[in-house]
Amino acid sequence: MTENSISINKERLIKDMEAINSNTATPGNGSTRFSYSEEDRKTREYLSREFKNLNLAVKTDGAGNIRAKYNPKENDSPSVMIGSHIDTVMNGGEFDGLAGTIAALEVIRTIKENKTDITHPVELVIFSEEEGSNFGSTTVGSKVMTGKLTKADLKTLYNSEKQSAYEVMQAFGFDADSIGEDLLQKDEVKAMMELHIEQGGVLEEESKSVGIVHAIAGMNTFQVTLNGVSNHAGTMPMPGRKDPLVGASKVIIALEEYARTQVNETTVATVGKLECSPSGSNVINKTVTFNVDIRDIEQSGIDQVSNYLKEKVKETAETQQLEYEIDLIGTSAPARLSDTVIDTLVAKAEKQGMNYLKLHSGAVHDTMMLADVTDVAMIFVPSKNGISHSPDEYTSYEDIEDGANLMLEAVIELAQ
Ligand SMILES: [Zn+2]
């Protein structure tokens, strides 16, 4: 830190994080804090008390997204927005989402207690249901806030109890009927930044304490179904078999090789889910269904692998005498982050003598959803062994402190 700069209070940040992490549905086995759960309610109550202490103007929308504004000049200027999410996956870690939320809260506290002169308001944003733990669909809150998910869409997303997202939001006490009426407008926000754990191993490998994200990968998710003929594993000779698992294997191997050697360095393709039916050790399967996750920071890379997948499935189905179906079940475009905000972050990191690295994010974040509304950027902090979505997730508080101080400096500059 340079001499006359201000910095966040690490002890206070630790106290908040520990208090919130004590609300878990799975004590002794990680943080489990789904949106619209009792743990979520307690966390919201805790944060509300902090907002009250800071005298922030708080608004909560129909999906439970929170916007808490510090506006010392009491003007209508667009806000510098900072924040993240507070929900987790089942048996998740203590840092995913929460680190960025509390770092942002600390930034606002620090600006307020130092009476730092700023013109633009600074707004803490907390997105609901980022992880998709309830309805199997990620970044729900930020999509609602930016109009990418409508009230009608929320009536078609269901949890395991067959309740729709709309019903769950309403039952929790949010005004889900108002969804769509208070979308985030371009003139309300000047820039948006999110601090988040990296959830990968690049920063640790390079011994960096902070990452400045220059792009977020987009993705296509396909579901592929191959249908063959089920038969006895002992009596059916090899010639003439219509085995969909053999077909699926050929597609998966070809896809891995293609993505590794024929596209961009940033392109990745993964099959993480595969189901066989009837799935018996002495039976040739009738049906195999698998999902393909394709990501890149370049749309061309996503398109190239998607086209290759379609061709390969068609060709394999022909040679193996299978019937096939291929559906695009999810898509998001790569997000270019704002050069203005990135340049500000780089300049501040240089000034503070920080050990930083510019990198891209392979994971999707709420920030992406705001990229068409305002200038966005992200700060990453290292994940030990690259582990996330696990009780073993760990980021040192020293690194979170560095990331938060970088955000603090950038916020002060952008809010001038
Ligand atoms: Zn997260």
UniProtKB/TrEMBL annotation:
It comes from the Bacteria. The keyword ATP-binding does not apply. Keywords: Hydrolase, Metal-binding, Zinc. InterPro entries: Amidase_Cbmase, Bact_exopeptidase_dim_dom, Peptidase_M20, Peptidase_M20_dimer. Pfam families: M20_dimer (PF07687), Peptidase_M20 (PF01546). GO terms for molecular function: hydrolase activity, acting on carbon-nitrogen (but not peptide) bonds, in linear amidines; metal ion binding. Zn(2+) 1 binds at H85, D96, H196. Binds 2 Zn(2+) ions per subunit. Residues 217-318 form the Peptidase M20 dimerisation domain. The keyword Hydrolase applies. Gene3D superfamilies: 3.30.70.360, Zn peptidases. Zn(2+) 2 binds at D96, E131, H389. Its cofactor is Zn(2+). Belongs to the peptidase M20 family. This is Allantoate deiminase/N-carbamoyl-L-amino-acid hydrolase.
